[in-house]
Each structure stands twice: as C-alpha cells, then as structure tokens.
Amino acid sequence: MRVLLLLFASATAYKLSRLGPKGNVVPKVDGYACIPVPKDKLVAPGQRASMHIYDASSLEVVRYAQAHANSTYGQVVIDEVAMQDRRFGLLEVGSRVKLLSVTPSVHRDKFGGSSPSFKAEVIGVGLIEPAEVLQKMPFMTVRPAEEDCSLLSAGSGVAAPGPGAAAALSEAAEICQDLEELASFKGPMTRKREVEGSTRTIDECVQQVLALRGCEGADEGTRVLLSALAATAFLPGAPRFEAMLLAQRGEGTAAVALVHAALEEESRRRLALKALSGLSAE
C-alpha cells in the first residue's frame, strides 16, 4: 500500500509540474537573437529609445539577451518585396541594441485582455548585417556577416570633418528637437519622453555608446558618424535606414552628408509649420 501511495504521489506531482507555469530561463542557442521591426522602429547607433515589449517572441529575446548576451540583441527588417513574392528575406542592415533598463509591466489589448510585458530603455550600440537566419522560433536568431568594429574605428569611412561640420549637424538636429511636437512621424526619439534619460543630448549618447563598446579613444570622424546616426532619430525611417546602410558599407562620409541634408530639410519643414501655426492662431 505504501508503494502504491508513493507512485500515486509521484504521478500527481509530474502532472502538476507539466501544468504549472514554465520558468523564464531561456537556454543558450546559436546565433544572434533578433526582433523584426519596421524601418520606423529601427534604433540607430547613438539613439536612445523607450519601448513597450509585449509579444511572446520579443519577450523571449529580452530574457535571452539578459541571460546570455550582455543585455544586447538585434533589430532586423523583413524584406517586404520578398514577402510579396512569398519569399522570406531580411534587408541588408539592422541594429545592435543594448538594454539599459527593463521593468516588468502589463499590456492591455483593445479587447480588455491583459498579459505580461516589459518596459525597456535601450540604446543603439552598433550595426548588424544578417548573413543567415538560423531559426525563427521561439525567436529569430541570425548569423551576422561580420562584426561592425569598423563603425567605431579609424576605418569608419569618414573623412576628417571640415571646420564647422559637426556644429552644422548639431545645429540642424537641435532645431528638429526643439520642434518635435510638429513632427508628422513618431520615430524612436520623437515620441513623448516617458523615461528618464531620453532627454540626453546627442553628444551624451555618443559618449555612452563609445564607453559601452570600449572605444572612448575613437577619432573625430567616427564621432561625427555616430552623431549623424544618432540624429536620424528626428527623421523618418527611410533616411535613417539609408544612412545605416551607407555606414555598414564603409561609406561614412556619404552617410554624414545624407543625414545633414535630410536634417536641414526637416528643420526647414518644421520651422515652416511653426510659422504657419503662428499665422493661423492670429
């Protein structure tokens, strides 16, 4: 009788363990854990952003990054043209993102349901070139083509900036930042600043990236390129992606020129909107 009771207890415990909630320990896998995002959600190197992460796959990526990847994960962009041809593919460049803080939260859907979520503060710390998708479940992992060390070194492809180049870039970015309420799009840094730290200047963000990557001695050209990529926070997703792609290809000078021109155009647009709003208020 005692043996039967022990067997019954063991069987009951086994069933309960299978029905109970699973732990949050994510085993290590091959590849680089990534979250697919649209271009507008890409966080370029030097950008800080606050995120509300709630879908199951992305939650697993966050847990994996914390457990196995020094709180770093990737953002990749799905190729929509390939999808139209019923093929799966990723665009040529994505972002390396560092989790700065993660706070448990609750996501409430439009039907009144709720589920666990994370509110995270992140910063872009590099680029990623997806070479191969290794798996898609429980989250996407990719094998990068190569490390992005050239982005943070003398090989960044940026010529020595001329007098006032960095200042002109900063001035255009500051105008856009001051007029964020007039933006017609809401990129990673043009949303309302809900998390402490989101108001940091571009220079402070660049310094933080260099410190996180151990590249405090980076040359001036590299710092200008990082500043330009960080300033794409005030631009729509398309020019941000194009600047990141140029930087990944080693065409840093072209990337800086693209961002500078786009920022000047965006700052003029916002100033015009401000003037028009002033006229309509009279």
Question: TL;DR of this structure?
Answer:
The chain is α+β, with helices and mostly antiparallel strands. Helix content is 40%, strand content 20%.
How are the SSEs placed, and which strands pair?
Elements: H1 2-19, E1 32-36, E2 48-53, H2 56-68, E3 72-76, H3 80-84, E4 94-108, E5 114-128, E6 130-135, E7 140-144, H4 165-178, H5 202-212, H6 220-231, H7 237-248, H8 252-280
Parallel strand pairs: 1-3
Antiparallel strand pairs: 1-7, 2-5, 3-4, 4-5, 6-7
Helix pairs in contact: 4-6, 4-8, 5-6, 6-8, 7-8
What descriptors fit this protein?
282 residues; alpha+beta; Archaeosine Trna-guanine Transglycosylase, Chain: A, domain 4; 2 domains; 7-stranded mixed sheet; 7 strands; 20% strand; globular; disordered N terminus
Structure explained in plain terms:
This protein is α+β, with helices and mostly antiparallel strands. The chain folds into two domains: 23-144, Roll (Archaeosine Trna-guanine Transglycosylase, Chain: A, domain 4); 149-280, no CATH class. It is 40% helix and 20% strand. It has helices at 2-19, 56-68, 80-84, 165-178, 202-212, 220-231, 237-248, 252-280, and strands at 32-36, 48-53, 72-76, 94-108, 114-128, 130-135, 140-144. The chain has a seven-stranded mixed beta sheet with strand order 2-5-4-3-1-7-6, sandwiched between helices. Helix 4 (165-178) packs parallel to helix 6 (220-231) and helix 7 runs antiparallel to helix 8 (252-280). The model is unreliable at 1-23 and 187-198 (pLDDT under 50).
